Amino acid sequence: MSLLIQDPAVTEQAAEQLQEEKTLSFLELILNGGIAGTIVIAILFVLLIVAVYIYFERTFAIKSASKTDKNFMNQIKDNVMNGNIEAAKIRCAQEDSPVARLTAKGISRIGSPLEDINTAIENAGKLEVYKLEKNVSILATIAGAGPMIGFLGTVIGMVLAFHELATSSGQAEMGSLAEGIYIAMTTTVAGLIVGIVAYIGYNHLVVKTDKVVHQMEATAVDFLDLLNEPA
Q: What is the pTM (predicted TM-score) of this model?
């Protein structure tokens, strides 16, 4: 009886070749996913680019809106108390921020009833909030639609895989069937990635926007208290 002795180097080389055969890059998954899978991945890629662009564009815009001189309200208070309304308006024009524009709106209504001034400031505040939240709703939509589009791609891939199984009278190779299934699952992975990125970005922008809104509210209260101070 003879014993079969295998060379360890040959065995290791065969194992490496088998590992290389099982390895599949993400790009290959996209290209091998069929027309439907490729289209879904392309749509998700575009949504990801849009989400990233909106996030950074809004982040820089909100950061710029939150910058205000700490002595701004003190300077406005001194000018208003001294009756120098024009100087207060000029100071507001020099400060490019929602807080300055709200204050300028209130200054322009000095002499009107306090209720009218408050209403004018509230309306100006709504407009500033609308500017801050520009396109943020698109980010929320992408956060919800991304996983759904990815799941749609998976369902389409599963339907095609089982259709192939049905048309082959149950004689389809399990390897080919399994390959079609895990290729289809890549769209779900891509959709979840897009959804997670957009969801995190959306919530971060909401938090930063709320901080600016609270800053505007505090400024509006300070300005109204200034008008209520006795002469």
A: 0.74
